[in-house]
Every structure is written in structure tokens, then in C-alpha cells.
Design brief:
Structural class: alpha+beta
Number of strands: 13
Number of domains: 1
Helix content: 25-40%
Number of helices: 7
Mean pLDDT: 88
Low-confidence stretches: 106-111
Radius of gyration: 20 Å
Strand order of the largest sheet: 2-5-1-6
Strand content: 15-25%
């Protein structure tokens, strides 16, 4: 399969120095393979959760069987990327995207370059060589539902698929594409699953899974990517301001939500933006993917500006409540169409 893609929001993929772009290899194959494997694990895990048999060893086996590699053996998938049009490397208007302002903190040895470099509007060719067509579907879905690089869960690093070669998209909507991907992977799992698997019942999965009980995906039409990106700011949310921990726990902060051992935990909500998706009438689309998983610390500390601290206990009910409040704020801020499951 060959994909032709365009960077539509500011993207930062580091090089030998984390804050400098690699101008010889703007879009790294390893970055793409990383998100493809992450989503494959989430989808396989979600299907197994829905079947009542979520098991890490089974996930590892199916990752290996479709060619993405696991503890059982190396990946058989080859990804190659080629730059067709060099991106614009630009640091102006950096304050428009809140996350870019945070990422710009610090200096390079070259004092003239004070901010982290980012790129936009680059055009690339991605060649995917594999022996299982499920990987093609997972790759396209990965690029639709998440970005690449720094801040990729908060709109940054979003990529449009502008053309697909050697794969035909027959679905009319994004929701149909997600459902068909889910169904095809489920059929593969059921046909290759060994009998006598012990069933398990979990209230929440131990890691993010794209299942039909705890995950949700919505779209925003005529979306403003900057407004969607800046939704993560507490000042933009009325109901869920005190639940900001569900949007991620950063490292090394003196204020905000912190942990005693400085653990970092990525956001349970992924925001992406597309100028155009490969479905009819899908232009200027924001996508929201929400996971519920019990992989937060048992307790965190909220430290305010005046350094007053209070402890927050996190359990399944706290996670569910935080997600409910985030959804209420999303529905109040945007016209969200919840399309899956």
C-alpha cells in the first residue's frame, strides 16, 4: 500500500537533538510504525475485552501474527517514507497553539533559535510493505485518529491522507471504516483463537483499548484546530476543570496535578484535525477519541499557585466521572457527533 499524506497542523519529530527537526528525514518510518503498533494493540485489546478474554499474551501473539512484531519475534512490516514537498519550518504565531508555547521552553546552543522547531504543510509518500492487509487498515486508521510527534494527542502532528494506492476504501463514513476494521480484526482473532481461553470480566481495562463498552469516538464538523487544541486549558472548560488529570500527567511540574514519584501518564483523550478525510463530505473535521482505562496512579496531588496541596484518589469511579465531565464540556463547547460505537 502507498499513502500520500500532508501535514495539516504543526508537527515536531525530533532528531539527534530532541528540539531540532531532522531536515534529512522529516517524517520518520519509526514514528509511523510506533503509532500503528500502539493502535493495533488498542484495537486487538478492545476486541478481546468485548469478548471477555483480555489477555496480554494473546495480544502479543496476534501482533506477531499480523506482522507488527512482539515478544514472540521481530516485525515483518517495512515502512519507507519520502519527502515530496519540504514542509514549512516556522516558529511564528507559536502562542496560538498552547502546547507549542510549552514545547518551546529552553534554548539550543544556537542562541538565535530560542524555540522548538516545528513543521507544517509538508507532503510525503509512505510505502507500507507487509503480508497482512489488516496492517493497511490499522495504519490508515492510526493516521486518522492520532497525530505524530510531540503533542500528538492534542491536535499537533495531524496528517491528511490525500491519496491511497493498492487499497480501496469502500466505506462511506469514518464510523463505517472503524466498524469494518473492528469486524475484520475480530474475524481474524476468532478464526485463530485457541479454545479453552479463560474468560475475564473487567470494569475497566488496564490500558487503553478501543472497545465498545468504554471507548468513544466523535467528530466535529467545520472544526477550528486551534480551538480544539486549546480545549485542554482549564480556563476553557467549566465542568471538567478539576478533572484535568484525565488529560495527562506531565513530568517536572511545580504546580498542577503531580505524583510523588513524578510519573508521566498520557491523556485519555486524543484530539486530531483533518482538512479532509477520504470520505464524502468530510472536510475541516476534528476527531475526538476517548479511552477509559485503569492505569493511573492510585493517588495524585494537586498543587495550586499558592502551593496549597490536596490529595486526589483515583479509582474506576473517579476515571468514569472525569470522562463524563469531559464529554459534557465537549458537548457544551462543540457540536460533537458521536459516531462510534
Amino acid at each position: 500500500m502507498i499513502l500520500y499524506v500532508t501535514m495539516v497542523t504543526p508537527t515536531h519529530i525530533g532528531s539527534y537533538e530532541s528540539h531540532i527537526l531532522d531536515e534529512l528525514w522529516f517524517l520518520k518510518p519509526s514514528s509511523i510504525k510506533g503509532i500503528v503498533k500502539w493502535w493495533a494493540r488498542a484495537i486487538i485489546g478492545g476486541i478481546l475485552l468485548d469478548m471477555g478474554m483480555l489477555n496480554i499474551e494473546i495480544i502479543e501473539r496476534f501482533l506477531y501474527q499480523i506482522g507488527l512484531g512482539s515478544k514472540l519475534g521481530p516485525s515483518r512490516v517495512i515502512i519507507r517514507t519520502f519527502t515530496l514537498k519540504q514542509p514549512d519550518i516556522n516558529s511564528k504565531d507559536i502562542n496560538v497553539y498552547h502546547r507549542l508555547e510549552l514545547l518551546s521552553i529552553g534554548r539550543r546552543e544556537n542562541k538565535e533559535a530560542k524555540v522548538r522547531e516545528y513543521m507544517i504543510d509538508g507532503e510525503f509518500e509512505i510505502i507500507l510493505i507487509n503480508d497482512n492487509s489488516l496492517v493497511d487498515r490499522i495504519t490508515m486508521l492510526s493516521l486518522m485518529l492520532s497525530g505524530i510527534g510531540k503533542g500528538s494527542r492534542k491536535v499537533l502532528g495531524s496528517i491528511d491522507i490525500t491519496r491511497v494506492v493498492n487499497f480501496k476504501i469502500t466505506e462511506q463514513t469514518l464510523g463505517d471504516f472503524i466498524e469494518k476494521t473492528y469486524d475484520e480484526i475480530k474475524e481474524f482473532i476468532q478464526s485463530n483463537l485457541k479454545p479453552k481461553i479463560t474468560k475475564t470480566k473487567l470494569e475497566l481495562p488496564p490500558f487503553p483499548t478501543l472497545d465498545k463498552r468504554t471507548a468513544q469516538i466523535g467528530i466535529i464538523r467545520n472544526c477550528d484546530p486551534v480551538k480544539l487544541h486549546n480545549f485542554v486549558l482549564k480556563s476553557r472548560r467549566k465542568i471538567s476543570a478539576e478533572d484535568s488529570w484525565i488529560l495527562g500527567l506531565p513530568r517536572g511540574r511545580e504546580t498542577g496535578f503531580i505524583t510523588n514519584d513524578n510519573i508521566r501518564r498520557a491523556s485519555s483523550v486524543i484530539f486530531t484535525y483533518h482538512n479532509r478525510l477520504p470520505f464524502k463530505g468530510m472536510e475541516k473535521i476534528g476527531i475526538i477519541t476517548i479511552f477509559q482505562s485503569n492505569d493511573f496512579p492510585d493517588k495524585i496531588i494537586h498543587k495550586g499557585q499558592k502551593h496549597k496541596e490536596h490529595e486526589i484518589k483515583i479509582d474506576n469511579q473517579a476515571i468514569k466521572g472525569a470522562v463524563e465531565n469531559i464529554i459534557k464540556d465537549l458537548n457544551n463547547t462543540f457540536r460533537v457527533e458521536w459516531i462510534w460505537p
